[in-house]
């Protein structure tokens, strides 16, 4: 896999590049925003948000405009909720807080690439999502579990679609709140209530799994 590593600290960039290459990735390095924007196409961008020549969030938006399908992981020492939300809203698929281990980073890379691969499948472009016995017609806003049609409220449906688009992968709470309510303010309890309602209507409590401290995952089998 071809990775664009955008990091202005030479020591950090060198160590990260070596670790990524040991894991079989081809690494292209950029020290500035200008170099990152000029870089050739890649599969994944590791983007440090603290760059010397341009705000990292602006770079993230630009990269997303250039390539809607490229996977982007924002990397930053900024750990506040506001910063994480800003990174996701700018177009990042994930947000990693420094310092981090290579084990964590590699796991996040694998998760993001799984989601990216799923999002490009043909059934999704036709507006149909599937996960095990679950089938969703996104355009008609209809849901079936096996042969049984399930009637969902608007936000319940939006929540299910957000989970189904990344079926089998843990979706962080912040990401779900942004996708369904377009904000993280005052929606934490709403999310839990809607997940509980969704489980009840799907009549399968284990279909939507809780990953404690992280988010939720839609089971695929």
Number of helices: 9
Q: Output the structural class.
A: alpha/beta
- Helix content, binned percent: 40-55%
Query: What would the CATH topology of the largest domain be?
Result: Rossmann fold
Number of strands: 12
Using only C-alpha atoms, the radius of gyration works out to: 18 Å
Q: Determine the N-to-C terminus distance.
A: 28 Å
* Strand numbers in spatial order across the main sheet: 2-1-3-4-5
Note the main sheet: 5 strands, parallel
Query: How would you classify the quaternary structure?
Result: single chain
Brief digest:
The protein is of the alpha/beta class and 221 residues long. The chain has helices spanning 10-22, 33-38, 56-66, 81-89, 102-119, 122-125, 154-164, 173-181, 188-202; strands at 2-6, 26-30, 44-48, 71-76, 94-97, 128-131, 134-137, 142-145, 148-150, 171-172, 208-211, 215-218. It starts with a strand and ends with a strand.
């Amino acid at each position: 896999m071809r990775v664009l590593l955008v990091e202005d600290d030479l020591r950090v960039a060198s160590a990260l590049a070596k670790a990524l290459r040991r894991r079989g990735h081809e690494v292209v390095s950029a020290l500035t925003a200008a170099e990152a924007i000029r870089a050739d196409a890649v599969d994944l961008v590791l983007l440090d948000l603290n760059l010397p020549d341009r705000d990292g969030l602006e770079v993230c938006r630009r990269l997303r405009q250039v390539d809607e399908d490229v996977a982007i992981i924002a990397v930053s020492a900024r750990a506040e909720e506001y910063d994480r939300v800003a990174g996701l809203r700018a177009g990042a698929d994930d947000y990693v807080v420094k310092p981090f281990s290579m084990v964590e980073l590699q796991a996040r890379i694998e998760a993001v690439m799984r989601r990216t691969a799923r999002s490009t499948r043909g059934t999704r472009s036709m507006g149909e999502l599937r996960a095990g016995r679950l089938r969703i017609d996104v355009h008609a806003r209809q849901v079936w579990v096996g042969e049984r049609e399930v009637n969902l409220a608007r936000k319940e449906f939006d929540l299910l679609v957000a989970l189904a688009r990344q079926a089998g992968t843990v979706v962080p709470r912040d990401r779900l709140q942004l996708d369904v309510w377009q904000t993280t303010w005052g929606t934490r309890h709403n999310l839990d209530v809607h997940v509980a309602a969704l489980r009840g209507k799907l009549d399968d409590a284990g279909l939507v799994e809780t990953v404690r401290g992280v988010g939720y995952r839609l089971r695929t089998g």
